[in-house]
Amino acid sequence: MARQQLVVAVFAALVGMYALAGAVDAAGTTLPPLSKFGKRDQQLTCKGDKNSQYCEGTCPIKCPGKCLVLCPGCKTYCECDLFPGTSCGDPRFTGADGNNFYFHGKKDQNFCVVSDAGLHINAHFIGKRNPAMRRDFTWIQALGIRFADHRLYMGAQKTVMWDDDVDRLELTFDGMQVDIPTEIDETWQPTTVPALTVTRTSMTNRIKVELKGVFNIHASVVPITVEDSIIHNYGVTEDDSLAHFDLGFKFYDLTDDVHGVLGQTYRTDYVNKLSVSANMPIMGGAPNYVTSDIFATDCKVARFGHQAGISMVTTRAS
Hints:
Layout: H1 2-17, E1 18-21, E2 41-46, E3 53-58, E4 67-70, E5 75-77, E6 86-88, E7 92-94, E8 100-102, E9 110-115, E10 119-129, E11 136-147, E12 150-156, E13 169-173, E14 176-177, E15 187-188, E16 196-200, E17 206-211, E18 215-222, H2 226-232, E19 244-251, E20 290-291
């Protein structure tokens, strides 16, 4: 589609302008973290044609532990504010049209993020109740991905005390547990679906999931830090660090009938009706996206299985 090609072109231009600090970009480039999560003052690197430039950068409040730096002025931004197909924090998405929006959903429920003829992705939300507000604080704890006759689950395990060096990823494929050695670039690939690969992008808590020609998903398990909780009034206690996913999605073969919280923004007829100038533009309509299970395709906007989709990729490796 012309629109998707434009999005990819804009994304590529942005990647050329920015350096990433402690994150993985949605285009597929893995970069080493420069600081631990929760540390706001970072030494950021701008790499140019001549000499590398170092500067002290303070990440925005919305992403205190990781951000992007604009060179050479060393201005910092959250990646969720720039790149299409990303989801961070109290789920803040960047749609294919480049606009940011929040989708709060509800804790302990599942919502369809993308639903197309041959691909369906649900997200399970965890949350924290703030009595002073009418809604829950929510985060994406797991994804349930369906394609052809297969089911891939990826989740962030509940963690009391967070430690960057302890892996909290949980993966299953068609009901069987997937174990990947904790070494960078270690890869798992099922014999039944050679086009599917799961690759470690960090020794712990970061992976890239790719189904060739269909999607590329970068997932990072991150906690709610004490600083995050104080800044946003999350009210996090010591019994749960609320480990959740920051996500980067890239899609290659969506139809123009795609739907879902994020999926609908990839339609050529999508019209953004949100107040993009608001501090928190919120996409409502949660009842349209709620599903009964992490793998269920019973949301009101479901498209999965409407026609032959991507089953052919399960029998080839390229």
